[in-house]
Write a sequence for this structure.
């Protein structure tokens, strides 16, 4: 395990005469001389180092076999790449953590990069969680379901899958084979007769006793074995059972096992890529073109292709694909389970070290291979082809999006193409379950990781008052923005955030790559900030679109005036007289008459896509909120009522509504409900009535 952090303080501070004001951010020393001061106390042990700027922000995290040797490289003048030179010049202090081995340092480095997101590390922009299949074991009749997020629920997890669609398809097939339930626990407890899934032979009906607890447990175990990679043994068992049933002339039972074998064959069918001999593996392939890199990841479990995902990390243009790939893999498994085999398209310089670190993390042997021949090479070649095609699509889409942004600026007389457009919309049904939604678009398309939803919670908002709802949403959004960043300090062209290679971006990097011991000599860096990259999304919008006409625009103007924001372009998008797409009216402050665009103008289609995406997101958020309210059980709101007591009440009375109408004596007759608890339940529902 890593030792306690050993943080080395800055060199002795300079003496400032009394009465002399000191601007720490301006006078605090930075550069090689600051780094050299740490060499006196550093030991040649493995560890992780952090570089901090004058504001105390972590700008780089790296690992080293010998901290002293690595830091000494940064302490010398000259001989660095532009990126490293800028990083050294910005370093005002350093912090160190010593560990026992270099493998531990690699794991700790990944953890710290996820935590601090330093700007000089490799950027892995898409870091959303993967879906898994969960066989939940917190119930007498385990349930199979899709799961995302923290794995804190009792049960067996299988994955990762590349997409939710792949999970849903697999669960549907598993239902046909193993007949496991997918219903919620509340539905299970309230069932008095089998549901439709039992009728169509996709559930064995444990809720109403159509199958015994022991037989259902055997089905669960078979499903777990299948998902764990024992598909062949499960298939052989069903073949044997089908043969035995046929020999005993029990043809209906034989047909049941035959149908399960068909479903199994469908699940394990070839999925456009040959994975013969591969039970559990992840395949990583990198393709680099025009200074950009795409990494394609394929997931194989139980001999099946469970999908793939493309990543587009940002890194210095001087880094080779194997360097980016090495850094990417080290960060990828920081919060994900590690398979037994990892295949790569390039030979990694730290291949043995990464394998050792992942073996430590997984507590079992992990192989990291770069195959040169055989069937594994076909998998890597297929992944590399997908990486190349994905990168070409990405480049083409970005070019098209940039043209649309330029056209947008021309149509609405903007000084430059917008780099961030925010669109706001509301959704409700007669004022109930009201929500606001904000979507974001930039030079690379929709930035879905920056979407926001707003639950309308002000008591002053009259149900159904769209203007008041829009006022609350815009106020909450821009009040926080105005408090955190003033216009002068947050304008991207004035205060760029440098990412690897001098590119400017609002997001901080997630990947990491330790610099080589002897970097090649490059030209000295310029002290001037480099120009903004066109493919980044800042945190402050250039344009705000509100779904509505002059009224909604007037609300937006009032909110901006109250908050003192005057550098954001406001546009109201209203449907035409007959609410037809293509006849939208654009309301702009200072213009008495709304503006219209040509019916076949690509910019008009672009704005329609923005509006439709905002509408889709608002409707989806509203439906999710309404569904949550419909499925909420009032018993969950009573203090002291847990799953066991809730189950007892529902079994006794049949529904929560019946519980609410029950008297105290009836409540006391339920197993597990004391007189005190019965009084509490009675008071809860009767207080609500009054």
């Amino acid at each position: 395990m890593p030792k306690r952090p050993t943080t080395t303080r800055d060199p002795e501070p300079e003496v400032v005469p009394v009465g002399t004001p000191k601007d720490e951010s301006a006078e605090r020393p930075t550069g090689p001389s600051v780094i050299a001061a740490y060499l006196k106390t550093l030991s040649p042990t493995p560890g992780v180092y952090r570089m901090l700027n004058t504001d105390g922000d972590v700008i780089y995290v790296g690992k080293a076999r010998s901290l002293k040797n690595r830091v000494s490289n940064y302490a010398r003048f000259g001989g660095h790449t532009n990126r490293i030179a800028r990083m050294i010049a910005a370093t005002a202090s350093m912090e160190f953590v010593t560990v026992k081995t270099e493998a531990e340092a690699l794991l700790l480095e990944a953890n710290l990069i996820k935590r601090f997101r330093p700007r000089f590390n490799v950027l892995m922009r898409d870091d959303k969680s993967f879906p898994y299949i969960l066989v939940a074991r917190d119930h007498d009749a385990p349930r199979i379901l899709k799961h995302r997020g923290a794995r804190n629920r009792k049960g067996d997890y299988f994955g990762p899958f590349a997409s939710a669609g792949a999970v849903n398809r697999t669960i549907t097939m598993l239902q046909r084979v193993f007949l496991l339930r997918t219903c919620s626990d509340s539905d299970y407890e309230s069932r008095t007769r089998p549901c439709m899934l039992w009728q169509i032979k996709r559930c064995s009906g444990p809720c109403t006793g159509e199958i015994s607890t022991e037989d259902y447990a055997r089905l669960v175990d078979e499903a777990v074995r299948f998902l764990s990679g024992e598909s062949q043994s499960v298939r052989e068992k069903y073949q044997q059972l089908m043969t035995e049933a046929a020999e005993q002339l029990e043809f209906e039972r034989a047909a049941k096992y035959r149908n399960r074998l068909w479903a199994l064959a469908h699940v394990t069918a070839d999925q456009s890529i040959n994975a013969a001999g591969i039970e559990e593996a992840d395949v990583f392939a990198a393709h680099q073109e025009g200074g950009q890199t795409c990494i394609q990841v394929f997931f194989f479990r139980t001999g099946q292709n469970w999908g793939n995902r493309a990543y587009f990390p940002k890194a210095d243009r001087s880094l080779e694909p194997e360097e980016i790939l090495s850094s990417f893999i080290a960060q990828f498994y920081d919060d994900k389970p590690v398979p037994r085999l990892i295949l790569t398209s390039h030979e990694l310089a730290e291949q043995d070290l990464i394998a050792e670190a992942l073996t430590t993390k997984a507590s079992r042997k992990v192989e990291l291979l770069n195959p040169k021949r055989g069937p594994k090479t076909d998998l890597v070649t297929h992944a590399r082809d997908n990486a190349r095609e994905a990168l070409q699509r990405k480049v083409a889409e970005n070019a098209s999006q940039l043209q649309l942004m330029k056209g947008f600026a021309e149509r609405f007389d903007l000084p430059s193409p917008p780099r961030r457009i925010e669109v706001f919309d509301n959704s409700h049904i007669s004022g109930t379950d009201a929500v606001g939604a904000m979507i974001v678009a930039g030079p690379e398309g929709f930035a879905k990781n920056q979407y926001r939803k707003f639950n309308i919670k002000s008591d002053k908002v009259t149900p159904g008052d769209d203007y008041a709802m829009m006022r609350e949403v815009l106020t909450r959004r821009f009040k926080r923005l105005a408090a955190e960043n003033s216009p002068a300090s947050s304008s991207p062209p004035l205060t760029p955030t440098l990412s690897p290679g001098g590119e400017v971006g609002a997001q901080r990097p997630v990947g990491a790559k330790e610099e080589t011991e002897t970097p090649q000599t490059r030209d000295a860096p310029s002290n001037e900030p480099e120009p903004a990259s066109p493919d980044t999304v800042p945190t402050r919008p250039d344009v705000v679109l509100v779904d509505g006409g002059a009224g909604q625009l007037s609300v937006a103007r009032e909110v901006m005036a109250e908050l003192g924001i005057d550098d954001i372009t406001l546009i109201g998008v209203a449907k035409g007289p007959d609410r037809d797409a293509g006849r939208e009216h654009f309301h702009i402050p200072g213009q008495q008459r709304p503006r219209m665009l040509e019916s076949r103008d690509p910019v008009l289609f672009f704005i329609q896509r923005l509006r439709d995406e905002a509408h889709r997101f608002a409707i989806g958020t509203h439906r999710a909120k309404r569904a949550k309210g419909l499925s909420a059980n009032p018993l969950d709101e009573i203090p002291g009522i847990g799953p066991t007591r809730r189950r007892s009440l529902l079994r006794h009375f049949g529904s929560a509504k019946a519980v609410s109408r029950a008297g105290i004596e009836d409540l006391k007759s339920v197993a597990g409900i004391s007189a005190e608890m019965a009084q509490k339940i009675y008071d809860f529902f009767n207080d609500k009535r009054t």
In short: The CA atoms of residues 110 and 334 lie 6 Å apart.
